[in-house]
Amino acid sequence: MTKNPSRRDFSAGALATVAASTLPAPYVWAAEKKYDAGASDTEIKIGQTVPHSGPGSLYGVLGRIGEAYFQMLNEKGGINGRKIKFLTMDDAYSAPKCVEATRRLVEQEEVLALYGSLGTAPQTSVHKYLNSKGVPQLLLNTGASKWNNPKEFKWTMAGLPLYPTEARILARHVVNVKPNAKIGILYQNDDFGRDFLGPFKKVLADAGGTAQVIMEQTYDLTDPTVDSQLINLSKSGADVFYNITTGKATSQSIRKVAELGWKPLQLLSAGSTGRSILNAAGLENATGIVAIRYNKEVGLPKWEKDPDVMAFEELRKKYTPAIDQDNTIAFAGYGQAVTMGEILRRCGDDLTRANVLKQASKLAGFHSPYFLDGVTYDYTPEDYTPMKTLFISIFSGKDWDISDKPMSE
């Protein structure tokens, strides 16, 4: 598809041009056109880094669906008449490779902004660099608390529920249903894993400490399996298992719990609840898992008539038929591509990096097609928390049974 295997390059465009006179007041555009690097009368260049190879390659589909979406929009005429050139580059979930790819996007390709890049550790490696350059680092596929720091790092915004938000809500759920819980935790040995621990433990302590963490086990992304960690946890006496893992480690751990005959209450981080991950684990093995939900699913009868799911399915079939119909990670990427397109649409003819950031920080109330009804982005210029309304849900073996009422932080 491309000459350089580390780079995926599609020229793409977006929604039909909307006349400025028809826009609501906040979106009336200035007559003067303003451009930074990566933007012109005819083109807007944006980029991202995701693992198209390596241990996190499951998430490379985020880039492939982004390519498809922007190609589709290109065929419809462009965002405000401009084509989108979208570059999704492989960082193999490696910080050094992320630095190399990001510098190339900024210094050689001269993108206007980056969006949808993945991973706490890789994105931490370019966090200060992008902020020093004044390049928007938007809709990150990581919920690390550090991204909510508009005073010191205003150019960086997360795209997922913040991990502390998840952790606090799950801890409250444990206190409610198992007030004397003995909790075992498996977590990824990096910033991603550690960002859940403190908030989770603090809720337990604030509740009186009768529910306690009795064992913690860690794993590295390069570990071939997590079997030994699960064996240790199963022997600890824990009756709650908090599974803070990603990708193949999630699938392996869910399957191993079942093989061991261990039957704890299982908690799972929201970013690892995609159907492709659960399929690899065995859906029957995932029955009863509790997780935060804020998104719709694809490939399920429950959602097949949903207009947003139908639009995604039409895109998938036409442009990326090799992607499975039930790939919720791809659906998440679609939702973020739609959101990035909306940010650029709102920029009008002021395609400066400062205005891209301004429009992103004012997305409060925007509903991504990926989101459940009742969930919207909550960004403001002073608070970069992506969303504050979430749902507790339990996996039935076929679908997520979502609570009637959302929980807000």
UniProtKB/TrEMBL annotation:
<feature type="domain" description="Leucine-binding protein">
    <location>
        <begin position="43"/>
        <end position="370"/>
    </location>
</feature>
<dbReference type="Pfam" id="PF13458">
    <property type="entry name" value="Peripla_BP_6"/>
</dbReference>
<comment type="similarity">
    <text>Belongs to the leucine-binding protein family.</text>
</comment>
<dbReference type="InterPro" id="IPR006311">
    <property type="entry name" value="TAT_signal"/>
</dbReference>
<protein>
    <submittedName>
        <fullName>Branched-chain amino acid ABC transporter substrate-binding protein</fullName>
    </submittedName>
</protein>
<keyword id="KW-0732">Signal</keyword>
<dbReference type="InterPro" id="IPR028082">
    <property type="entry name" value="Peripla_BP_I"/>
</dbReference>
<dbReference type="InterPro" id="IPR028081">
    <property type="entry name" value="Leu-bd"/>
</dbReference>
